[in-house]
């Protein structure tokens, strides 16, 4: 699996990964009716660095990295990861997260924070924990899950 | 004290409040060299509702309210408050927070979250606690304080 910076030519592949995630509204706090253009503008915003995970010429996942805060918060990175619905269970998210941790360290970040991990997304919570993240905050009922109602969201954090 | 929506004519007063806060870099995760235009564009961004607290024709404070997240997170409000250096200790922040809680309730929000309360800002932490907020998260060393080095930032939350 090759993880490389995203290029403008990856837009269609990135949207094909984002679209089902956005429309489902179960794991990301994004408007479910978000347009393709808005979604790509959000993911590929100038304050973010975007990557894709590629295997045999197919884009299986994408992630973005940015400073989580400005000013005195710039030494903490924030990332978001999405895996193609066709590539679940193949370790794509784990590989992207490992890549992002290395890349963040190389850029001089001292820590990484996830601001809003939906509590019912147990697969993600376990994966991030296995990669060294701890739950440092719990936001009660902060996420309106389309099937489960208001569920907690978690803040996860690790030093680099 | 009158709390009213901010208008474009308040820009100079808002910047006079923001400038020392931004330059000090002790309580907000904003770049300390942020320009006037960038600061006002941030504070008066289209996704925020901005208010000012006024007494005898003088603007003593300003606050902004917005949804903390999109999509499934839109029922949780986020606010930020700044008080004029000349008006500290007069209850301006408390009055603005009370106003914001009422306003958020009126808009249908179910909760309010502060994402990044600098731990050394004890005055603010105590004030928010006295207004019903609880510390629901602690971000270890997430804020580079110009005098104290890396200090914790707190996530605070209350139902409405």
UniProtKB/TrEMBL annotation, chains A, B:
Any single GO molecular-function term of the entry would be: acyltransferase activity, transferring groups other than amino-acyl groups
UniProt keyword terms in alphabetical order:
Transferase
Domain of life, source organism: Bacteria
| Domain N-acetyltransferase as annotated: residue spans | 1-160
Q: Does the keyword Transferase apply?
A: yes
Q: Known InterPro entries for this protein?
A: Acyl_CoA_acyltransferase, GNAT_dom, Mito_N-acetyltransferase
SUPFAM superfamilies per UniProt: Acyl-CoA N-acyltransferases (Nat)
Keyword Transferase attached: yes
Q: Which PANTHER family match?
A: ACETYLTRANSFERASE, GNAT FAMILY (PTHR43138), N-ACETYLTRANSFERASE ACA1 (PTHR43138:SF1)
Protein name as it appears in the record: Acetyltransferase
Source species of the chain: Hyphomicrobium nitrativorans NL23
């Amino acid at each position: 699996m090759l993880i490389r910076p995203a290029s403008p030519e990856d837009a269609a592949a990135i949207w094909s990964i984002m679209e089902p995630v956005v429309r489902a509204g179960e794991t990301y706090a994004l408007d479910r009716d978000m347009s393709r253009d808005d979604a790509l503008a959000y993911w590929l915003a100038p304050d973010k660095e975007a990557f894709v995970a590629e295997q045999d010429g197919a884009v299986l996942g994408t992630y973005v990295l940015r400073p989580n805060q400005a000013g005195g918060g710039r030494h903490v990175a924030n990332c978001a990861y999405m895996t193609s619905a066709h590539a679940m269970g193949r370790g794509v998210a784990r590989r992207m997260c490992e890549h992002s941790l290395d890349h963040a360290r190389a850029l001089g970040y001292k820590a990484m924070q996830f601001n809003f991990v939906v509590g019912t997304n147990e697969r993600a919570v376990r994966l991030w924990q296995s990669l060294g993240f701890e739950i440092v905050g719990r936001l009660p009922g902060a996420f309106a899950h389309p099937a489960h109602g208001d569920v907690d969201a978690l803040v996860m954090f690790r030093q680099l």
